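Entry 12.
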Amino acid sequence: MDTPAQYSKIPRGELHEMTNAGKGTILYVEDNPDNRNLIRRVLNAEGYAVIEASHADHAVQKLAQEKIDLILMDINMPGVDGYTLTAKIRQMEKFSGIPIVAVTANVMRGDREKSLEAGCDGYIQKPIDIDTLAQQIERFLTRRTNA
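Predicted 3D structure (C-alpha cells):
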C-alpha cells in the first residue's frame, strides 16, 4: 500500500487511527498486544478507527486527547483492572456518556453483573467472535445515539 509522504513517519497503528474513523472511534483498553492487534484489524476492516491503550493511565491519557465514541474495556489487566478503570471514567463528567463494553474471559456466574455494577454498558465474552463483533459494537453505539 502506498502511503502519503506526510504519513510515512507515523507508526502503522496510529495511521489506522487517523484514517479510518468512518463509523466511529473506539478506544480498546487491553494489555495483550495480540488481542489488540486482532481487534484493531477486525474493526478497521469494518470502518472503525481503533485507538489502543495497554493500561489504565494510557487509557485516561487517550480519552483526554481523542474524541472517543465507545470504549472496549478488558477486565483482567495488571495494576488497575477494568472494573476500577470503568468506575474512574464514570466519575469523570466529560467522559461519563461514552459507552463502555467489558471484554473479558470471566464467565463465572456474577461476572456480567459485576461489570454492569462497575459502570459498563454491556459485556462481550472472550474469545471474541470476530464475525459478530462489529454488529455488537454497532448496537452499543446505536443505543447511545437513541438515548
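Annotation: The longest strand covers residues 24-29. Confidence is low (pLDDT under 50) at residues 1-19.
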